[in-house]
Amino acid sequence: AQTVTQSQPEMSVQEAETVTLSCTYDTSESDYYLFWYKQPPSRQMILVIRQEAYKQQNATENRFSVNFQKAAKSFSLKISDSQLGDAAMYFCAYRSSNQGGKLIFGQGTELSVKP
Amino acid sequence: GAGVSQSPSNKVTEKGKDVELRCDPISGHTALYWYRQSLGQGLEFLIYFQGNSAPDKSGLPSDRFSAERTGGSVSTLTIQRTQQEDSAVYLCASSQLGGASYNEQFFGPGTRLTVL
């Protein structure tokens, strides 16, 4: 069975600075997807960024980028130029390519942004 | 169109009572997922519906939990004889398709269930 681990329960960053959230996963599959979701206090899960395992190039979405290390099974999220609105719980998630699409989530990292 | 909606937003019930949680997916989405978010267990998959196929119930924690999806649209998650450990936020998500191809899952705002 696949597992996802986020070892940082809480992180803090100064506004306009850069922060990196860590995620590792365990799987025996070679084809899968990885995601970072943001959950603000409203509880609405919002997709931040996704990575297909077959792509070597790291995904980027504006101020958000990932460092995908397939051999090391590592998938970290970098947030550049942090903004107050980035404060939220961040979840790393894994999706197999052949198990119907269900997501397996890490425990989450609560990010606070200091003005 | 509208996003995924869930009702009620909050539900308080007494131990031993049955509860029903409702999810309205995005129109046209054939795949629907239920997840549970609790303090002790984090975010965990419960059940997955894809079109007319048999649902994947592999995440349901006990036989007190069941779900159905009528007409390929609205889904109801039922918890019988609720226990205090059932207290959690129940999230629903839908996507255009499930299966091998990637389709983004859109989440609803969740139902916070509190069992006294």
Radius of gyration of chain B: 13 Å
Number of strands of chain B: 10
Percent in strands of chain A: over 45%
Poorly predicted runs of chain B: none
Question: Any chance you could write out the topology, listing elements then pairs?
Answer:
The complex is a heterodimer of chains A (115) and B (116).
Chain A: E1 3-5, E2 10-14, E3 19-21, E4 24-26, E5 32-39, E6 46-52, E7 60-61, E8 64-69, E9 74-79, E10 88-96, E11 103-105, E12 109-114
Parallel strand pairs in A: 2-12
Antiparallel strand pairs in A: 1-4, 3-9, 5-6, 5-10, 7-8, 8-9, 10-11, 10-12
Chain B: E1 5-7, E2 10-13, E3 19-24, E4 31-38, E5 42-50, E6 65-69, E7 75-79, E8 88-95, E9 106-107, E10 111-115
Parallel strand pairs in B: 2-10
Antiparallel strand pairs in B: 1-3, 3-7, 4-5, 4-8, 6-7, 8-9, 8-10
Descriptive overview:
The complex is a heterodimer of chains A (115) and B (116). Chain A is mostly beta strands and 115 residues long. Chain A contains no helices and twelve strands. Chain A has strands at 3-5, 10-14, 19-21, 24-26, 32-39, 46-52, 60-61, 64-69, 74-79, 88-96, 103-105, 109-114. In chain A, strands 2, 5, 6, 10, 11 and 12 form a six-stranded mixed sheet that branches. In chain A, a hairpin with a 6-residue loop joins strand 10 and strand 11. With 116 residues, chain B is mainly β. Helices cover 0% and strands 47% of the residues of chain B. Chain B is built from no helices and ten strands. Chain B has strands spanning 5-7, 10-13, 19-24, 31-38, 42-50, 65-69, 75-79, 88-95, 106-107, 111-115. The radius of gyration of chain B is 13 Å and the shape is globular. Chain B starts with a strand and ends with a strand. The relative contact order of chain B is 0.33. The mean pLDDT of chain B is 91. Chain A binds chain B through residues 33, 42-47, 50, 52, 91, 95, 97-108, and chain B through 31, 33, 35, 42-45, 48, 50, 56, 59, 89, 91, 93, 95, 98-100, 102-105, 107-110, 112.
